[in-house]
Specification:
rod-shaped, 7 helices, mainly alpha, about 65% helix
């Protein structure tokens, strides 16, 4: 019977009552599968499978795990960021291209670049800001479900908790990316000339 689940990031462990464990695995009364101690124990070396005694040993084991998993981490982060950038840019670019006639028309009416930008670009800011605030926590929830399946062959547990600083950093990153793309599209708007009205004249 499971009493509860506890976060233990260094690994995945099932803790049982010692007597129940020995009975379940038909082990002797002096059998221990894992022993935690802050000092050296008088246990024969032949009875030990492995021993971790120093911080350096733990760091070495962690480095092996990091080197194994880093390519996947890099791929997930890199591809996710690239797809996000491309999708956001194309989405806003298509909106500008479809509004070429309207942009050229209001330029004829004497609207300044600042006003044109406010009409056709700045309105997207609120959609991006609200969408990011909703989708970042939602994406984290979905990844928490999917990620264990991605590392099902790795004998290790890890803490997937995000701090509020990390959530804030991601949110600010999305907004900064929006402003960069916004500046790129301002150049595209500047290239729209009043002659576009004549091109679309029937």
């Amino acid at each position: 019977m499971i009493e509860g689940i506890t976060q233990y990031s260094p690994g995945f462990y099932a803790f049982m009552d010692i007597d129940s464990m020995r009975e379940l695995f038909n082990a002797s009364d002096d059998y221990y599968n894992v022993v935690f101690a802050d000092k050296k124990l008088d246990v024969p070396a032949g009875r030990l499978y492995t021993t971790t005694t120093t911080k350096a040993n733990i760091e070495k084991s962690s480095d092996i795990f990091k080197s194994m998993m880093m390519p996947m981490f890099s791929m997930l982060i890199g591809m996710g960021t690239l797809i996000f950038c491309v999708v956001m840019y194309l989405m806003m670019k298509v909106m500008i291209e479809r509004s070429t006639f309207g942009i050229s028309l209001i330029k004829i009416f004497g609207y300044r670049m600042k006003e044109v930008r406010k009409l056709y670009l700045n309105g997207n800011f609120y959609m991006i800001a609200v969408g990011a605030a909703i989708c970042i926590p939602l994406s984290k929830t979905v990844m928490d479900v999917l990620y264990p399946a991605m590392i099902s062959d790795v004998s290790c547990g890890m803490d997937l908790h995000f701090t509020w600083q990390l959530y804030l950093g991601l949110y600010v990153g999305v907004l900064l990316l929006y402003f960069v793309i916004n500046q790129l599209l301002v150049r595209k708007i500047k290239k729209v000339v009043p002659a576009e009205v004549l091109k679309n004249r029937e």
